[in-house]
Amino acid sequence: MRRAILLLAPSFTVLIGIFAIPVLLLFVVSFWSVKTFRLQPDFSFAAWQRFFTVYGDLTLYTLAVGLAVGLFCTLLGFVFAYAARFKAGRFGDLLLVATLITLFGGYLVKIYAWKSILGADGLLNQALMGIGLTDQPLAFLIYSRGAVIIALVHFLLPFAILPIYAALRNVSETTIEAARDLGASASQVLTRVIVPQCLSGLFSAFAFCFLLAAGDYVTPMLLGGTSGSMLGQFVLLEFSTNFNWPAGSAMSFGLLFVCLLVIGALAAMGSRLMRRSPGAAS
Amino acid sequence: MIWRFVIAFFLLFMLGPILLVVLFSFGSNALIGFPMGGLTLDWYAKLAHDTGFHSAFWASFIVALATAILATITGTCAALALTKAAPKLVRSALAALSLPVLLPPLVVAIAIVVLFVRGLGLGLGLPVVILGHILVAQPFVILIVMARLARFDQATVDAARDLGASHWQAFRLVTLPQIASALIGAALVSAAISLDDFIIASFTIGGGNTISTFVWGKMRTTLDPSINAIATILLVLTVGLSALALRVSKYKG
């Protein structure tokens, strides 16, 4: 036992010193106040008030983007993982390698790539003008919500594929064959045999993509323009330009709490749905 | 048949943008677009003479190396402790240690800055970047090493202990040689995570650049085509490291 504690000490020292204490301190700072650009210990709700009044709409919009990205990633991730598991045969492993390459393909590199594809003189506009579909560049391709969502889905899709694939690998062929033998149609096999067995994988894929998308600020900064901006950018703004650390802190935690609330609500809804449909018992 | 199109579409969507960047890093035109001009290595040559890129490259190298070594140590220690622990303890310890990966990196980065600047009154710099990277790399090390230890024959260690080896001797002479490939794999993955990180580095570095903050500077100011070349170098490094990691940890068991 003493040996186990000694062995856990290094990693937990890092966890506590570089994560737990800083995050707690950051939370405390959200109740401090700023007077003439100086941070002062205080017990004030001004920063939280600012979050709800000034940034309320932007938070809802940020959540909407996060939900869209989470849903797209989970859906597309399931289709790809399903293909890799059941349809690709011996190429399944190769598809996973492709997934890992995209995973490590570089966060900034990907955003930059989408900027070059969607930009006014980007590839997509060149192609559209080349085949004569439009005679001038379509401006809405970049600097919009759509551009932000596409780039975030591209960035987070591998993170959705991997847990879903891991869950699908545990789905045994015998249960599928049994269902088929008992007369289940292809769609029934999918919705009543396969999906219920990988529900936890689907859910963790969604939760991870949703959280990371909602908390991102680099993608909307480079691809969002004014119509696609997200809360994270303003957290940065409050911290750097405005030097209003309490506001930035309240916004970070506000967003985090709201995201966890959404995930919790979805989890509760999901487990209730599961209990109600008798065919879904695993 | 339809699945072939589905898979082709996915591969195009996932790999296409990345391959474009690589392709255009060898093109003579300043911007991404067709025709891409002649093949050239000019952008790489330009980087070779760029002192800003040199210092960013070395900073990234130091940070990735330190992260790889230190995260592998902290993570392996934890994995060794957790393989023998009760399942309930394992689950909660793993959940706690993975928490930094699940939160938006922006929040983690800002929290670290607040602690070092306001809480401790210390400056920022490469050591802080390294600490931040250890924090996000160690859960991956733990998962990789624990997966290896799950298939590990504990009897060999027991035999060594029965024959009079100390804990340390048994670890160094029996356990370590058997799990070495997994440790190298974990170190390579940690280095790849460190190289790829932009958000934590950009907040905690204070002054100077890593490769990713250097790219960011170029992305924000000018449309400098050498970004394609840096991105390709970064890509080759991270994908190469992780591919090597997969190979190393698969080959020897």
Q: Would you give an account of this structure?
A:
- The complex is a heterodimer of chains A (282) and B (253).
- Helix content of chain A is 75%, strand content 2%.
- Chain A is an all-alpha fold.
- A two-stranded antiparallel ribbon of chain A has the order 1-2.
- With 253 residues, chain B is an all-alpha fold.
- In chain B, helix 3 crosses helix 8.
- Chains A and B meet through helix 1, helix 3, helix 4, helix 5 and helix 7 of A and helix 1, helix 3, helix 4, helix 5 and helix 6 of B.
- Chain A: This is ABC transporter permease.
- Chain B: It comes from Taklimakanibacter albus.
- Chain B: This is ABC transporter permease.
Summarize the structure in short:
Helices cover 75% and strands 2% of the residues of chain A.
Strand proportion of chain B: under 5%
CATH topology name of the domain at 61-228 in chain A, in short, is MetI-like fold
The helix count of chain A comes to: 13
Radius of gyration of chain A, CA atoms, in whole angstroms? 23 Å
Number of strands of chain A: 2
Sheet/helix structural class of chain B: mainly alpha
Layout of SSEs?
The complex is a heterodimer of chains A (282) and B (253).
Chain A lengths: L1 H28 L3 E3 L2 E3 L5 H9 L1 H32 L4 H12 L3 H12 L4 H8 L14 H25 L3 H9 L4 H12 L1 H16 L3 H7 L6 H9 L5 H32 L6
Antiparallel strand pairs in A: 1-2
Helix pairs in contact in A: 2-13, 3-4, 3-7, 3-10, 4-7, 5-7, 5-11, 7-10, 7-11, 8-9, 10-13, 12-13
Chain B lengths: L1 H23 L17 H7 L2 H33 L3 H16 L2 H15 L6 H25 L3 H9 L4 H30 L2 H6 L6 H11 L4 H26 L2
Protein name (chain B): ABC transporter permease
Organism (chain B): Taklimakanibacter albus
Protein name (chain A): ABC transporter permease
